[in-house]
Amino acid sequence: MSRITRRMALAALGLSLVAPQASAQSPEAFFKGKQISLYVFSGAGSTYDVYSRLLVRYLGDHIPGKPTVIVQYMQGAGGLKLVDFMNRIAPKDGTAIAMIGRGLAFEPFLGKNEVNFDPLQLNWLGSMNREVTVALSWMTSKVKTFDDLTKNELLVPGTGAGADSEIMPLAFNNLAGTKFKVIKGYRETTEASLQLETGELDGIAYWSWSSILAAHPDWLRDKKINILFKTGHKDLPGAPPDLPVIQDLVKNPSDRKALDFLLSREPLGRPLIAPPGMAAERVKVLRDAFAATMADSAFIAEAERNKIEVNLVSGAEVESILKEAASAPAEVIELVKKILDR
Questions:
Q1: What was the pLDDT predicted at 214?
Q2: Cα 321 to Cα 120: distance, rounded to the nearest angstrom
Q3: 20 to 30 A from 138, CA-CA: which of 151, 181, 270, 288?
Q4: CA–CA–CA angle 113, 332, 248 (5° rounding)
Q5: HEC sequence for 85-149
Q6: pLDDT digits (tens, 9 = 90+) for 191-243
Q7: What is the pTM of this model?
Q8: Secondary structure class of 266 (helix, strand, coil)
Q9: Euclidean distance between CA atoms 252 and 323, whole angstroms
Q10: Cα atoms found within 13 Å of the Cα of residue 148, Cβ hemisphere only
């Protein structure tokens, strides 16, 4: 055996001895003294930031070894930069997790996959809440109702290709006859929302009700906005009781199926992911810790004090929603692609 061959053999033997020891390491031993980074696709002050900062204050207490958990920001391309990082670059040991936009996982099903990722291969830890979204106009806009929106143009922000803020207005225009005009180039909806008060924008076509409650409760209190419609039949305290439901305004059965597909992302709320390729045992540790955090009485109390809506969507439920979306009938997918001009 040559000297090089012997060295290779010894190196392989060394790896084979180390690997079982590493895999046998307990979660507590691994995470003790570690730092976990929770990456967020939107910037400081956004609603996603508010949720993530609440989460990191409690999540580490429910992970064996009690690691430190910190928030880091990775903005760009409507969240695709972060998805790409998690898919290809992030460590696959549980020290990197991310909160991403719920709509990004649906893009590959619709033939748009700029960063080449498989949503079903990501490890979904769950979501902090289920969403109901609304469309709104600023108080100075001549668009006050849904009927007004079918007759008058409403300037709304777009935050990147693949972002809900650009996809959903286009879908509403094609399926329900609205007249949203998307103004592209905004980094995030929370940032763009500040432009409502300056008159640069007229409204927002698709924004989480929980975001309004958390970031702009004064808008409701002081009647600064008009709520034009909502998605889903869930009651929204503080909203008009007779608020139109967008699904009910789409009469064509095929169009309704297309809209239902697009809105099936809403239960994902603010989804938390870990990279693909992680050991199943490590994924389970993170999922269990996330679920335990959502049930933590101190966590719940702080959320309530700050008017942050939380209700657990499990990782398994998120996976189930995505698998169903991936197997949607071809005619529904083709109609959605046509609506979105793909």
A1: 85
A2: 10
A3: 270
A4: 115
A5: HHHHCCCCCCCEEEECCHHHHHCHHHCCCCCCCCCCCCEEEEECCCCCEEEEEECCCCCCCHHHH
A6: 888 899 899 999 999 999 988 988 899 999 999 999 999 999 989 988 998 99
A7: 0.85
A8: helix
A9: 26
A10: 15
